[in-house]
Amino acid sequence: MQTVYIAPSANNAGIKFPKSPWVDELDRTDELAEPSGLRTVRLVPEITNSELAVLQAEVESLGPVIEWIKADSDPTVDDLRSRPLDSRKLWSQTPSVHLQTDVLVRCRHDDDTKVQLVVPMSLG
To answer: What residue spans define the domains of the chain?
Structure first.
């Protein structure tokens, strides 16, 4: 294999790039043992929603937020001050944080199809 020296510039910083011959991808299709392409992968959860809801409720920073959402009530300023910083940060996102099948999730305001699971650190 030959190497070609490329003069230094802002984009390549004098890196040597290998010079490879042109490869026609249509000629390589016969080499494939099986068809290439996207495959569907189905992930089976190892934890159920109810188990995750219990784990979330047991976490010091998530439990109060879940209770406030379930009760559909706003905590007082004193309640917020008495909670960990993570609870206060999560509560500040309440328009986008809600319960979905008793599991705490976060959705974007403009797109409810993008859901993020709030994962307790004990699972991380």
So the answer is: 52-117
Q: Is 57 exposed, middle or buried, given 0-12, 13-18 or 19+ CB atoms closer than 10 A?
A: middle
Q: Report how far residue 24's alpha carbon sits from residue 30's, in angstroms, rounded to the nearest whole number.
A: 12
**Pairing status of strand 2-4 against strand 103-107:** unpaired
3-class state of residue 105 by DSSP: strand
105 in Cβ contact with 115 (< 8 Å) = yes
pLDDT one-digit tens code per residue, 27-83: 655 565 555 555 566 666 688 889 889 999 999 889 999 999 999 989 999 999 999
What φ, ψ does residue 12 adopt, rounded to 5°? -115, -10
Count of other CB atoms within 10 angstroms of residue 97: 18
Name the CA radius of gyration of the chain, rounded: 26
pTM, 2 dp: 0.59
Three-class DSSP category at 115 = strand
Q: Which two tokens stand for residue 96?
A: 């986008």
Q: Which amino acid is at 10?
A: A
